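Protocol step 4 of 5: obtain the predicted structure for the target chain.
Materials: sequence only (see below). No template structures provided, no constraints applied. The aim of this step is simply to have a reference model before the mutagenesis design in step 5. Sequence pasted as it appears in the construct record:
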Amino acid sequence: MQGIVNKYNQVLADSRVLDGFHPAPNLVYLWPPALRAYRRIHRNMTTIKKTISDEVEEHKKNLPLSGEPNDYIDAYLMELEELKRRGEMDHYLSESGLRENVVDLFIVGNDTTAHSIRWCVLFLLCHPQIQEKLQVEVDNVVGSDRTPSLKDRNRMPYAQAFTMEVLRLSHLGPLGVPHESTEDADIAGYRFPKGTTFVANVWWCHMNPKFWPDPEKFEPERFLNPDGSVKTKVPSFLPFSLGKRQCIGESLALMELFLFIAIFMQKFTFRTTTGLPHPKAEGVDSITIKPPKPFQFLVEERKH
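Step 4 output (structure tokens):
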């Protein structure tokens, strides 16, 4: 899996090389670095697609005839088989859609979740008082005799608010994913024909002072109601995009981040290293996935 993730990361890196060639794609062939990037993209995507197709075919051969599915691919294939048995067609479910979902969930999601965790640790280092609040919450709700689980999530609103604020201020995907208009449209006096590609400025949605007072300040309390519960609908909070191209892994990602933070805060304290510059909440310049800049820290086991 890690080898496939690395190939996908290379595809993203090479895509940035080709960004400026969209108006005149044929010019790629005239500049050797761009041509090499283009060929690597084609080669790596071919490998990724074949690996996923082989995995889907293997699941089809061993698909359970009844009972519980073993994993996501089994569940998807079993639903397809049930639709075929009933003679029903669903244009939202297909084997090609399954392969695309696997890329999103297990390849793209692997990298974005890892970067999100790195951002979480970085913000904990930058705001030790927030780390203390998280530790108090997990101590009060879970204690030290068992490992935090998803059953604790609704009783730990501050941990949820923390992960939401990390997603807002880390700008992990500053431009989201492209969308295409399905019909002609007039917006603010401009004409956009059918087929126009739109790119959302998610960064501005998360930094607009109209919705976020003092937007550069890291403040998990933004996502808490006066009674301490987590806000369920927050204007201008779009870390997973929206619409039909909204990230299908949103629920999974939020659950994973909660578990990581809850377990980390139960067992460890993260501290800055003596003699080295204090880490800053800065990311690598990117219009796709934006990881934090490298930083060093100490992990101290908590004594309960």
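Step 4 remarks: The chain has a mean pLDDT of 87. The domain at 112-304 is CATH 1.10.630.10 (Cytochrome p450).
Proceed to step 5.
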